[in-house]
Each structure stands twice: as C-alpha cells, then as structure tokens.
Amino acid sequence: MLTHPAINEVSVVGLPDERYGEVVAAFVVRRKGEEDKLSEVHIQSWVRERLSHHLVPNYVFWVEEYPKTASGKIQRFKLREVGIQLVREGKRLG
Fold it and tell me: Which of 9, 51, 65, 73 has the most CB atoms within 10 Å of its CB?
C-alpha cells in the first residue's frame, strides 16, 4: 500500500474475527492534499489487483498519526486495541 501515490504511511494489524480467526486492518495516513482520492473501497480494490485476496484489508481506518514509542516505533498493539474497539462500536476512524 505504500506504493499508492495518495498514501503517506500505513500500518497493518490483525483483528480478531469469529469466522477466520483474524482479519487484516490497515491504518492509513493519507498524503496532504490527497484526502479526497481515497476510500475504503478504493484501497481494497487497489490491494486486490496487486496482491493475494487474503491480504486485502477487511477494515481501513484513516489516522493522522500513529502511537509511537520514544524511539519512534509504531505501537502496533495500541492500533490493534483501537481497531478492536472501533469494530465493536461499528465505527470507522477518520
């Protein structure tokens, strides 16, 4: 997804799923000025054209930034927690 011209950053985590055990969730930071060019469906279609179907994100969450450690690493466990909560609430981020 990083090769998409409208995506600045992306972090992918697994979220629990009753049917499959775990599904893909992508947390995407859009490039400035490109916000209107991306939708969840667009990202899913774009990935589907380039990668295997099991890599297509079931969820796409739009974020401005990621929770990071003091050394700058993305805290993926926090993204996972946020994703689980948003799915429970039936919400989308961004």
Answer: 9
Domains in the chain, CATH or no CATH each: 7-89 (3.30.300.30)
Summarize pLDDT for 56-73 with one digit per residue, the tens: 999 999 999 999 999 999
The CA distance from 37 to 30, in Å, is 9
Q: Please state, in angstroms and rounded to a whole number, the distance separating the CA atoms of residues 27 and 63.
A: 6
The C-alpha atoms of residue 70 and residue 25 are separated, in whole angstroms, by: 24
Structure tokens at 8: 């600045």
Listed in order, strand segments (DSSP E) in the chain are 7-17, 21-30, 59-62
pLDDT-flagged residues of the chain (< 50): 94
SS3 32: coil
Q: Residue 41 has which token pair?
A: 């469906």
